[in-house]
Amino acid sequence: MRKELSILHVIRAPVGGVFRHVADLSRVQVKAGHAVGLVCDAAANDPLQEGRIAALAAALPLGVTRLPMARAISPGDGPAALRVARCIGGLKPDIVHTHGAKGGLYGRLGAALQRRRGARVAAFYAPHGGSLHYEAGSWQGRIYFTVERALERITDGLVHVCAFEAETYRAKVGVPRCPAHIVRNGLRPEEFEPIGPNADAADFLFIGELRAIKGVDLFIEALSLLEADGRKPRALIVGPGSPEEQHRFRELANKSVHANRVAFHPPMPAREAFAKAHAVIMPSRAESLPYIVLEAAAAGVPLVASHVGGIPEVFAGETDRLVPSGDANALAEAMRAALDEPKRLQAEAMLRRDRIKQSFSLAAAAGRIEAIYREALEARYSVVRTGPVAEVDLPR
Q: CATH classification of 6-186+361-381, choosing from 3.40.50.2000, 3.40.140.10, 3.40.1390.30, 1.20.120.1200?
């Protein structure tokens, strides 16, 4: 009989696609009989996200522990790592699965400290883009990549969400000195139910964090270019953002686009937002494998996205439809085609839905991750393993 595992996930900010990934994976792991918990930042989020965190806490046997964690490099990183280490020592997990740059730092250091104290724990790291978005020659990149390289020595495995991320890690940090795996994000079966637009749907929807890296300004600029061409598209911008970023993008929209044609909304469930527009626009400057692209594709929603990160892996066989990153003119042209050829985009969306249904399964992803855990525990502690082990994808 297979031993149930005690699993602790560590992330910094419990928001966006990273939180979605951790929440989905955690719930499947609990359903499989494992004891699961989460450590994340104590800072409050919007009411919708706080509700999601509370619901997850109620579902996890080890609960959710919230500790102060700074986003930027700061003197507080040392104390934060020690707090995480104490949490690991108290919960005594078999597995510490870390996510994102800061979660990866705190969780792996905490697990290593507890191992020095005699704990039997394996540590894993999923970058989710994170530090890999920095340029190799920038001062931030040099610092982060040096730290990433050093942390490999206390890491039992890297878990990349797409081949692009694995390749980027190799190019910027180096060939890993610990096992590295590719396990794509997965979706629940009900997320493949098609969604059509409401009767009063807008033309375009942006949904995601209001940050420059997500290309919100490019979306607004593309809308302005369409207006200059005589079009009158209506758009929704849905998502969280700092007060400064929200003000910046609202001001840009007010200056660039005719009044009442761009509406800003607070965060809402993705499938609810999809029904409010005819097409989703994903104009990111950088990504790993964003859930919004997967969710829109699974729902059969027409999608205009930039050619970055792992997005081409979702658009396999149709990457010519992707837009060059950072090019507002190309984005406007793709949006113009969406207005002119809605039936073609809808047909492509349904074919995309059918294709990805075979490749992005949450159950399959969770099974592969459990296999990775057990192989690492066996390698580190010679744990006796029984039962079959799922196949693991390895980067070339």
A: 3.40.50.2000
